[in-house]
Write a structure and sequence with these properties.
The structure holds two protein chains of two kinds. By secondary structure, chain A is α+β, with helices and mostly antiparallel strands. Chain A has seven helices and seven strands, in the order αβαβαβαββαββαα. In chain A, helix 1 packs across helix 3 and helix 6 runs antiparallel to helix 7. The radius of gyration of chain A is 15 Å and the shape is globular. Chain A starts with 11 loop residues before the first helix and ends with a helix. Chain B is mostly helical. Classes of the chains: A alpha+beta, B mainly alpha. The interface between A and B is large, with 41 and 41 residues.
């Protein structure tokens, strides 16, 4: 069984609002970051975030995940699996595929082809989306990470992303 | 072949690779066709998903662009399944959100 029908629709703005309320430092990367910069690609069903890895930030992230009601996203378990976490625990994995009532979110501390938050934030831009402001990875970094990841779905979107980057003079 | 996802036509992997390789090499379709030894119409058909190259032909076209496809198999990750993404990305709710983000980007992404 897939949970395609059961998965909650993504409310990225609401997720980012919760993160901002908890003063979590993060960079949005992936398809949403590209879309937020006007790239002509369709919406995906999750939002990808690269959090800062300081102990303080990870504790804030853990609290934000509690507020979101985040659970581990896994096949055949609509709503995901409950998990206990704190900042130190979150740091023990390289990435987390999560789901919450506001949609699906992926945490990746070091996206392929990048140096993680400290690297991405130097080129990130602050973008206001609806009522929330978020640090969005530079489109060139999004492209670089997708190219490095090399998943089929990444490759399929790279031509459109490259064209958009060139059109804006990148 | 290609997959219509909401407002986006997602190219097949082969189409994306041919177009991406040509863009990276800075070649026109005609240039790439000459280098690969195929008609220009063939390159166009591949990029538009009108035809699917065999793997051997795809590798030849990529090589003509000065590129090599490096392949390795990775464990399947359900959470990253493209078809799973695509199926849900085509919903009205996701299209509406996509339009909101595009509108926001046009207003202030810089």
């Amino acid at each position: 069984m897939t949970s395609a029908d059961e998965a909650p629709p993504l409310d990225a703005e609401a997720i980012l609002t919760v993160l901002n309320d908890h003063r979590v430092d993060y960079v949005v990367i992936g398809a949403w970051a590209a879309i937020a910069q006007g790239a002509p690609i369709g919406a995906t069903c999750d939002i990808d975030l690269t959090p800062a890895t300081s102990a303080t930030n990870l504790d804030r992230l853990s609290a934000a995940l509690d507020s979101l009601g985040a659970r581990i996203r896994t096949e055949g378990v609509p709503g995901g699996l409950a998990f206990d976490h704190d900042g130190a625990g979150l740091a023990r994995a390289a990435f987390w595929n999560l789901v919450c009532p506001l949609g699906e979110l992926d945490l990746c501390f070091v996206p392929a082809g990048t140096g993680g938050y400290d690297d991405l934030i130097t080129r990130a831009r602050m973008v206001r989306v609806g009522g929330v402001e978020a640090a969005i990875a530079d489109l060139a970094d999004v492209i670089h990470s997708k190219e490095a990841a090399g998943r089929t779905k990444d490759i399929q979107r790279l031509p459109a992303l490259y064209e958009h980057l060139r059109a804006r003079g990148g | 072949m290609s997959n219509d996802v909401g407002a986006e036509i997602v190219p097949s992997p082969a189409a994306a690779l041919v177009r991406l390789a040509r863009m990276k090499a800075g070649l026109s379709q005609g240039d790439l066709a000459v280098r690969a030894g195929v008609p220009r119409s063939m390159i166009s058909a591949y990029e538009r998903d009108r035809r699917q190259p065999t793997l051997a032909t795809l590798l030849r076209v990529l090589r003509a662009a000065g590129l090599e496809l490096r392949m390795h198999l990775e464990p399947y990750v359900w959470a990253d399944d493209a078809e799973r993404d695509d199926g849900r990305g085509s919903s009205a709710a996701h299209r509406a959100q996509w339009e909101r983000w595009h509108a926001a980007a046009g207003d202030g992404s810089g």
